[in-house]
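Input (structure):
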């Protein structure tokens, strides 16, 4: 078994690489430019819970520690060499599960160019064929049509509904759960996407 991290993945104009503290300026600018667009889908801390991430630097350090333990893969998404978002593999469980969760967000300026479906497919392929995971799960709010379009383009199965699953935009929100296993994409998700 290999952790498959750190790694750099590329396809056409898209590059995926480890998120770094040096991304701080670009990350803040993209988040600021997209604040209204991303707010309805952003994780928040429930009332009464002390946030353990207080800055971008602490977020990256926390993700780096999780990556060193083999529990996460935090990717920065670059489009044409410019920072444009994130794909984060988290909650990696080994043993009999070989499972992980995936989340993502993207700069609205590059939305609609199939960037995120390709990025998610590249990361999933890496998880399956290099990191040797068996199953990837993605949880999406039912109202998030952009994220739903990503899993639809990739042909992921909806496997469940989770009421009040995550604290998002200030409240506990329902999520639709999508999953894919390595057996479902023997040639890889990117190949399946490009062949459609």
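Output (sequence):
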């Amino acid at each position: 078994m290999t952790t498959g991290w750190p790694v750099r993945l590329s396809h056409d104009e898209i590059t995926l690489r480890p998120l770094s503290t040096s991304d701080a300026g670009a990350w803040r600018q993209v988040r600021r430019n997209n604040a209204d667009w991303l707010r309805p889908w952003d994780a928040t801390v429930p009332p009464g819970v002390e946030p353990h991430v207080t800055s971008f630097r602490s977020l990256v350090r926390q993700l780096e520690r999780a990556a060193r333990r083999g529990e996460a893969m935090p990717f920065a998404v670059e489009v044409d060499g410019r920072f444009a978002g994130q794909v984060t593999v988290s909650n990696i469980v080994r043993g009999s599960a070989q499972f992980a969760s995936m989340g993502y967000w993207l700069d609205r300026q590059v939305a609609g160019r199939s960037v995120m479906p390709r990025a998610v497919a590249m990361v999933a392929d890496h998880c399956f064929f290099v990191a040797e995971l068996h199953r990837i799960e993605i949880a999406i709010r039912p109202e998030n049509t952009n994220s739903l379009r990503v899993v639809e383009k990739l042909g992921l199965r909806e496997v469940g509904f989770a009421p009040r699953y995550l604290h998002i935009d200030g409240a506990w929100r329902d999520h639709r759960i999508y999953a894919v296993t390595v057996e479902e994409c023997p040639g890889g998700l990117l190949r399946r996407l490009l062949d459609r």
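Notes: The chain is about 30% helix and 35% strand. The radius of gyration is 16 Å.
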